[in-house]
């Protein structure tokens, strides 16, 4: 898993053990992601399927894209399509993805890079592997998270953030058995580079076999742990077993605990998780396809604006 790594975790800042009086977050639910296909046919796991939107707030959905080894000619992406009212966060772990949008944003991301697109008032965008990768084939693995925007920010001008792997904050667990990558938000005073409208934290953690991670977490944020690969448990006092493709929904508390099983499969020698949480917006949601608004009328208006070309034109169109 080439997302940015560190050979010697002991050189990184260490997270401290929970303090006296700190409360662990209990596990409220564990779900298994169904598998399907998106865009032009790339495989995905719907990480948050089966979880109530009230428990996800401020998030809408998250897909694990791949992990898949493409043969030459097989790599796929998405065609041009519209969005309004939220943000898409695409984190590439393995492989290469190109992005373009009708507002001028764009770039190529690979191996630990993130593209953070605020659709806001509306745009068109496309995500696809570069032509050389289509011809050669190769490994592809990533995550796309949809982050809702508050009513006051839904019609803000679109923007694009290109976050390189070398910019993320890197921490180690107290036992130096876990690498914690902070992509957005903050952990124990260390901030990730992602700029967010909705207060939130996004972390990718890699646990060595037998390692334990006590991760401080904003008290006012919710918390979800999704297993990219490997097996282990979530929770301190009553641990719940988790494995590849499962999400743990946690309750309130000051920190969350993740532990890796001492024995891992050879194809997944470590436990990799995405940990995400944010401050709930607590506003009505009207969600239809690529539009996430507050009312049905606003969704219909988004469709009308898209059909009348008000989101701009595809690059080269």
Automatic annotation (TrEMBL):
Residues 18-39 are annotated as: Disordered. It comes from Nocardioides humi. InterPro entries: Pirin (IPR012093), Pirin_C_dom (IPR008778), Pirin_N_dom (IPR003829), RmlC-like_jellyroll (IPR014710), RmlC_Cupin_sf (IPR011051). This is Pirin family protein. Residues 42-147 form the Pirin N-terminal domain. Transmembrane segments: none annotated. It holds the Pfam family Pirin_C. PANTHER family: PIRIN, PIRIN-RELATED. Belongs to the pirin family. Residues 203-312 form the Pirin C-terminal domain.
């Amino acid at each position: 898993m080439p997302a940015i790594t560190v050979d010697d975790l002991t050189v990184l800042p260490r997270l401290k053990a929970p303090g006296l009086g700190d409360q662990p977050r209990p596990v409220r639910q564990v779900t298994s992601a169904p598998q399907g296909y998106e865009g032009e046919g790339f495989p995905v796991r719907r990480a948050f399927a089966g979880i109530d939107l009230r428990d996800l707030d401020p998030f809408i959905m998250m897909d694990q894209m791949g992990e898949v080894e493409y043969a030459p000619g097989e790599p796929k992406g998405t065609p041009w399509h519209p969005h309004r009212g939220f943000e898409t966060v695409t984190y590439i772990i393995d492989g290469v993805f190109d992005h373009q949008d009708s507002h001028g944003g764009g770039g190529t991301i690979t191996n630990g890079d993130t593209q953070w697109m605020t659709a806001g008032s509306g745009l068109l965008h496309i995500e696809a592997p570069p032509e050389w990768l289509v011809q050669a084939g190769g490994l592809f693995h990533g995550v796309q998270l949809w982050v809702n925007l508050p009513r006051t920010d839904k019609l803000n001008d679109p923007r694009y953030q290109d976050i390189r792997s070398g910019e993320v904050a890197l921490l180690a667990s107290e036992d130096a058995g876990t690498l914690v990558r902070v992509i957005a938000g903050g952990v124990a005073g260390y901030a990730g580079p992602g700029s967010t409208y909705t207060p939130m934290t996004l972390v990718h953690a890699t646990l060595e076999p037998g390692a334990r991670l006590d991760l401080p977490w904003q008290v006012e944020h919710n918390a979800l742990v999704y297993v990219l690969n490997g097996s282990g448990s979530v929770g301190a006092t009553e641990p719940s077993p988790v494995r590849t493709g499962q999400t743990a929904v946690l309750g309130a508390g000051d920190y969350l605990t993740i532990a890796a099983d001492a024995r891992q499969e050879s194809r997944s020698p470590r436990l990799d998780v995405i940990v995400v949480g944010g401050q709930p917006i607590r506003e009505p949601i009207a969600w239809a396809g690529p539009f996430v608004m507050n009312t049905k009328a606003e969704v219909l208006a988004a469709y009308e604006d898209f059909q009348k070309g008000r989101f701009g034109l595809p690059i080269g169109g």
